[in-house]
Write a structure and sequence with these properties.
By secondary structure, the protein is an all-beta fold. It has 2 domains: about 1-35, no CATH class; about 60-140. The chain has strands spanning about 1-10, 10-15, 25, 60-65, 65-75, 80-85, 95-100, 105-110, 110-115, 120-130, 135, 140. It contains no helices and 12 strands.
C-alpha cells in the first residue's frame, strides 16, 4: 500500500492506494484529542462474501472483519465450521442468511443453532468479542 496526504474539506486526509489492485481509499480522520500522538488502526468496512459449498451437511467458512454468509435456499440442516482471520478484532461482524425449503431448517454457526421457518428467509447477526461469535439478537425470519 502507498499512502499520500490529500486535502479534504480543508483538512489533511490520508489516501491509501492498493498497488496490486489500484483501488484507492480516502478518509479524513476524526479529531479525537485522546488519540493525539497514537497510531490508531482503522478497518475499512468492506463486506466479505465467501462462497460456501452447501451441498453437504457441513461446510468450512472463513470469517473476516465484516462477513456476509448467504447460503441461499437450503434443503437440509447445515453446520458451518468457522475459521476466523488471524487479524480479526473485537467488533467484527458476521451475518448469516439462509432460506428454508418447505421444511424448517437449522444452520449451526459457531456452536449456535439458528432455527429457520419453513419457506422463509432467516437472518442472524453475530459480533466477535475477541474470542467467540456472540449472537446480537434472536434470528429473524421474514
Amino acid at each position: 500500500m502507498l499512502q499520500n496526504l490529500v486535502k479534504s474539506q480543508g483538512k489533511e486526509a490520508a489516501m491509501w492506494v492498493n498497488l496490486h489492485t489500484n483501488a484507492s481509499y480516502n478518509f479524513a480522520a476524526p479529531e479525537i484529542p485522546e488519540h493525539e500522538g497514537k497510531i490508531i488502526e482503522v478497518i475499512f468496512p468492506v463486506i466479505d462474501t465467501p462462497s460456501v459449498d452447501v451441498s453437504g451437511a457441513s461446510a468450512d467458512v472463513g470469517v473476516k472483519a465484516n462477513t456476509l454468509i448467504d447460503l441461499g435456499e437450503i434443503s437440509g440442516n447445515k453446520t458451518l465450521n468457522v475459521t476466523a482471520a488471524d487479524n480479526l478484532k473485537k467488533g467484527g461482524r458476521v451475518t448469516v442468511i439462509f432460506a428454508s425449503d418447505a421444511t424448517a431448517r437449522t444452520v449451526t454457526f459457531a456452536e449456535v443453532a439458528i432455527v429457520g421457518v419453513a419457506s422463509k428467509k432467516t437472518v442472524q447477526e453475530f459480533i466477535f468479542d475477541g474470542t467467540d461469535f456472540v449472537p446480537v439478537a434472536a434470528a429473524l425470519s421474514i
